[in-house]
């Protein structure tokens, strides 16, 4: 097996998706290792979990930068480079990124969004899905671009929207799918199987088993 890629997971809260990535990376055949967990809040719950797992952690408190987003990101970038990070995975990192960090990690930064992009960008995705009456909802892992919740799609997972769904019940089912597709998407990128072609991601999926890495319908 080739050398595993060093991944930093960026969080702002409890790190639910961070946990799924850490669990996947514990398998010896997984092509990436979680080498750092970085938070923009000192009280982010995921930091304690990462430390319990023996993963190095760091905090860059955005409040220390008085609204200067690029200065904040330069501090984050310095830590990532010092830790020899190769791929960045945003997992509930609640900061709008400037072109500085997006360009610095172009095609090496992933994000997960609780909707089937390009539908329902932004916040309150589950409420909006119910309001629109869609029958299929889900989650998307994508490369980060300058536009919010945009960028080439790596993986998507879908769930049916039930007649009696509330935002909370729908969110719980989507979160379960997030935990499935994010490790798969990171593995595709870390192994080199996810390749960008004209702003579309090719994974070489040619059969049902490979296609499952992109689509999960519980």
Automatic annotation (TrEMBL):
(6R)-10-formyltetrahydrofolate binds at residues 69, 94-97, 111. Keywords: Purine biosynthesis, Transferase. Its EC number is 2.1.2.2. The record marks 149 as: Raises pKa of active site His. Residues 5-186 form the Formyl transferase N-terminal domain. Signal peptide: none annotated. The active site is at 113 (proton donor). One of its GO terms (molecular function) is phosphoribosylglycinamide formyltransferase activity. Pathway: Purine metabolism; IMP biosynthesis via de novo pathway; N(2)-formyl-N(1)-(5-phospho-D-ribosyl)glycinamide from N(1)-(5-phospho-D-ribosyl)glycinamide (10-formyl THF route): step 1/1. N(1)-(5-phospho-beta-D-ribosyl)glycinamide binds at residues 15-17. InterPro entries: Formyl_transf_N, Formyl_transf_N_sf, GART, GART_AS. Pfam families: Formyl_trans_N. The keyword Iron-sulfur does not apply. SUPFAM superfamilies: Formyltransferase (SSF53328). CDD domains: FMT_core_GART (cd08645). One of its GO terms (biological process) is 'de novo' IMP biosynthetic process. It catalyses: N(1)-(5-phospho-beta-D-ribosyl)glycinamide + (6R)-10-formyltetrahydrofolate = N(2)-formyl-N(1)-(5-phospho-beta-D-ribosyl)glycinamide + (6S)-5,6,7,8-tetrahydrofolate + H(+). One of its GO terms (cellular component) is cytosol. It comes from the Bacteria. Belongs to the GART family. NCBIfam families: PurN. Catalyzes the transfer of a formyl group from 10-formyltetrahydrofolate to 5-phospho-ribosyl-glycinamide (GAR), producing 5-phospho-ribosyl-N-formylglycinamide (FGAR) and tetrahydrofolate. HAMAP family: PurN. This is Phosphoribosylglycinamide formyltransferase. It comes from Roseibium limicola.
């Amino acid at each position: 097996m080739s050398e595993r890629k060093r991944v930093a997971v960026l969080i702002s809260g409890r790190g639910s998706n961070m946990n799924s990535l850490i669990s996947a990376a514990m398998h010896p055949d997984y092509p990436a290792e979680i080498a750092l967990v970085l938070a923009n809040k000192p009280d982010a719950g995921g930091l304690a979990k990462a430390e319990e797992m023996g993963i190095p952690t760091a905090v860059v408190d955005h409040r220390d930068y008085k609204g200067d987003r690029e200065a904040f990101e330069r501090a984050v970038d310095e830590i990532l480079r010092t830790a020899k990070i190769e791929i960045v995975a945003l997992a509930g990192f609640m900061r709008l990124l400037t072109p500085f960090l997006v360009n610095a990690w172009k095609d090496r930064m992933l994000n997960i969004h609780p909707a089937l992009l390009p539908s329902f960008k932004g916040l309150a995705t589950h409420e909006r899905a119910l309001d629109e009456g869609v029958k299929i909802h889900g989650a998307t892992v994508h490369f980060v671009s300058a536009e919010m919740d945009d960028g080439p799609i790596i993986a998507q997972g879908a769930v049916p929207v039930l007649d009696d769904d509330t935002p909370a019940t729908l969110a719980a089912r989507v979160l379960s799918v997030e935990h499935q597709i994010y490790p798969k998407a990171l593995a595709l990128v870390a192994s080199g199987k996810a390749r960008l072609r004209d702003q579309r991601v090719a994974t070489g999926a040619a059969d049902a088993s490979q296609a499952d890495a992109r689509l999960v319908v519980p």
